[in-house]
Design brief:
This protein is α/β, with parallel strands linked by helices. It has a single domain, classed as Rossmann fold (3-Layer(aba) Sandwich). The relative contact order is 0.15.
Length: about 400
């Protein structure tokens, strides 16, 4: 396991006690891995995102695209502008950012639009749906000069949004169910503890038939794999529920999802026998979710086929799926690189810094390989025929 050097296993002991209590109170003295992951990341007082928000960024555990300067938000803003035009410039264009981190992306988008496209900026209602109270406080501080509203899902009316609901690196942090093929069937991996209080994994019958139904949805036959015994991976049922909610709130417009992940055939590849679950601590990756509990991030890759299929069942239409590098290049990232080559009065050091930021966003071994899924709802036939600029290089 690739753990950071010179770092001891330092758990959040209060959180561990809460998890022990949850296990001991359960009927079979165990909880699903999804329950465990939800507590570790999202417990309102002691979860990772409640107590360690400073660990997002260059000094923390992981970086997201907005941390590489303002380019990412500016290019996304150009895509939102085009969506507004395709929808015939409605007087109220609602943008719902789901999981806004420290508010950096929102600041980039709103700041750019205010400066470059004031007519569009004045129509925007910017909503943020955020689970972490600590992150919400950071967002409010960062965005206090803009008209931004924070809302829970139950405060957003059914079919009330005309505009775009979007997320960047949100779905990968949803709690997942873990499973393993054992004795010729899909068995779920549960979390229990021994008499010394150590967390252990055990396998048994699946906790819900939705796990087996998931593979019917994405059209994957695990038992067609050679040597399938022992194969393990994850199922993100919460992503399906989330997709339903997103569609329910949208009257007309778009859903934009950016994250790292694969289509189902690649996600559930027989050669990926250990799944995609990974943990991050101080920019080091490891595969042990029971190490530094509550002090490291836990994620799994996104199955974009599941989002597409569930979207189709929820009245969403898939407009395109591509990689972030292609998406941003189509929105003008290449033009920005060319402008830097002409040196617009920047110092050599600043040119190199900006060039590094742009290249990082399209790096095929990193952020550039992230998936970008665009879905729509209730577009007219004329509106559907207008290909979004960001999808003009879609795979």
């Amino acid at each position: 396991m690739n753990q950071p050097q010179l770092t001891i296993n330092k758990n959040n002991e209060i959180l561990c006690e809460i998890i022990y209590q949850r296990i001991s109170e359960s009927q079979r003295k165990r909880i699903t891995f999804a329950e465990y992951m939800d507590l570790v990341l999202y417990h309102p007082q002691y979860g990772y995102y409640a107590t360690y928000p400073v660990n997002i960024g260059k000094q923390g555990d992981f970086l997201t695209s907005p941390h590489w300067g303002g380019y990412f938000g500016e290019l996304l803003a150009e895509q939102f502008l085009e969506m507004w035009h395709i929808l015939q410039r409605p007087n109220n264009f609602t943008m719902v950012e789901m999981g806004a981190g420290q508010g950096i992306l929102a600041e980039q988008i709103l700041g750019y639009l205010k400066q470059k496209h004031l007519d569009f900026f004045q129509t925007i209602e910017y909503l943020i749906v955020e689970k972490s109270e600590v992150l919400k406080a950071q967002q409010k501080q960062r965005l206090k000069r803009y008209r931004v509203r924070w809302s829970d899902w139950d405060q957003i009316y059914y079919s009330s949004i005309t505009g775009c609901l979007f997320s960047n690196e949100l779905v990968d942090a949803f709690p997942v169910h873990k499973f393993r093929i054992k004795d010729g069937e899909i068995q779920e991996i549960y979390v229990t503890s021994d008499y010394q209080g150590k967390f252990l994994e055990i396998t048994d019958k699946i906790s819900t038939p939705e796990i087996a139904e998931y593979f019917q949805l994405v059209n994957i036959d695990l038992f067609s794999f050679a040597d399938v015994e022992g194969y393990q991976s994850e199922v993100n049922l919460q992503a399906l529920d989330w997709m339903k909610i997103v569609s329910d709130k949208l009257l007309k417009g778009y859903v934009l999802t950016i994250d790292y992940g694969y289509q189902a055939a690649r996600y559930y590849n027989p050669f990926r026998r250990e799944g995609t679950l990974q943990c991050y601590y101080q920019h080091h990756r490891n595969n042990d979710p029971y190490w530094n509990i509550g002090r490291q991030d836990i994620t799994s890759h996104v199955d974009f086929t599941a989002l597409e299929k569930q979207g189709n069942l929820s009245e969403l239409e898939t407009l395109g799926f591509t990689q972030q590098g292609l998406f941003l290049m189509a929105l003008g990232l290449g033009d920005r690189l060319n402008q830097l080559s002409n040196n617009q009065g920047f110092s050599i050091e600043e040119v190199f810094r900006r060039r590094e930021a742009l290249h990082s966003l399209i790096d095929p071994m990193g952020l550039g390989n992230f998936g970008v899924l665009v879905q729509s709802k209730s577009l007219s036939e004329k509106e559907k025929k207008q290909t979004l600029k960001g999808l003009s290089r879609a795979c």
